[in-house]
Amino acid sequence: MVFYNWDEYLSDEVVTQFEQETGIKVRQVYFGNDEARDEVLMTDVNSDFDLVLIDNVSINIIGQDDKFIALPETYYQPISERFSDSCGDYGVPYSWGAWYCVSH
Question: What is the pTM of this model?
Fold first, then answer.
């Protein structure tokens, strides 16, 4: 799985635990700022990523340009509607307060 993410956002321990529990190898590709991230996501390069950490405003703008896959409703079932609405159809909330959404 290729995860487009902030540098040093996830600890190595979290990645290792995820890989051990799922058997899925994680490769992270990093961005340095929101503008650089959004520029890459607006190109066809975004198809190289399986998962993206992005804010709720950008996910909805970029998602409207068909750059993300709309998630099935089953992704949202364990999440309160109050929180899932912030990411629209393209992601699920990842962190409280910052409203970062994770999408694929």
Answer: 0.79
